[in-house]
Amino acid sequence: MFKELLSIFTATDPLPGATENFYKMLELAQEMILEASAVYWGKEQSPEERTALYKKDVEVNKLERRVRKQIIAHLTGPQDHAVTYALLIMSLIKDAERLGDYAKNLLEVREMHGKDLPDDERVGELREIRQSVETLASETRQVFETSDEERATELTIEGRIVAKRCDDLIRRIAGADYDGATAVALTLGARFYKRIDSHLLNLLSGVIMPLHKLDYFDEKALQADS
Q1: How many domains does the chain have?
Q2: CA angle in degrees (0–180, nearest 5) for 115-120-122
């Protein structure tokens, strides 16, 4: 399918530069995967190399927004609201689908571990994260139905704090004296709650961000509202 579409694009040149930007994204992603995989398996990484890898991720994100903007500019005109809405929904359903996958992942962690989690400070933190993510999930549909940009922004700020809490909790779990099964269950729980949180934030971006910036946020706007 992609080959057939590409031949049409090449023949009529409707999206100048979009294909090249897409290939560049794949190239950068490949470089990042190879470097990160090597580090995971023991390769020493200098601070400069780490910074370079994160800069590549920033470039991939910029290229994604650029390609989206090129496509939107080609497909839509001033009155093409139906096309714009269709593109928006096509992007958002990806995140809605991923919510289901990560919900199943949480269920599978429980089935794998098979016993109650310990009652300690770290597990208490995970319970608070759970409550925050469930609240975010329960409000997201209503925010869409009412197109409430103000509440969407508030929830986005709260959700970004939750994501940071998940990362911090995983570091604390790594330094704790849990048995292997419990450490894995807690780590996966924190990670999956973070992924659910992230996809909910992606959905909320559809309320407060222009179409080509879905999944991204205006840091200055969020800081102004925080």
Answers
A1: 2
A2: 95
122 or 7, which is more confident: 122
Buried residues in 79-96 as b, exposed as e (16+ CB within 10 A): eeeeebeebeeebbeebe
Do both 130 and 21 map to the same domain? no
Q: Indicate if 69 and 90 belong to the same structural domain.
A: no
Give the span between the Cα atoms of 114 and 108, in whole angstroms: 10
Residue 138 corresponds to which amino acid? S
| Buried/exposed code over 16-51 (b: 16+ C-beta within 10 A; e: otherwise) | eebbeebebbeebeeebeebeeeeeeeeeeeeeeee
> pLDDT by residue (tens digit) across 102-143?
999 988 988 888 888 899 999 999 999 999 999 999 899 889
112 & 218 share domain: yes
Alpha-carbon distance of 208 to 200, in angstroms, equals 13
Going 192 to 104 to 184 to 53, the CA torsion angle's sign is negative
13 pLDDT band, cuts 50/70/90, is: very low
Range of the domain at 115: 86-225
Residue 138 lies in a domain: yes
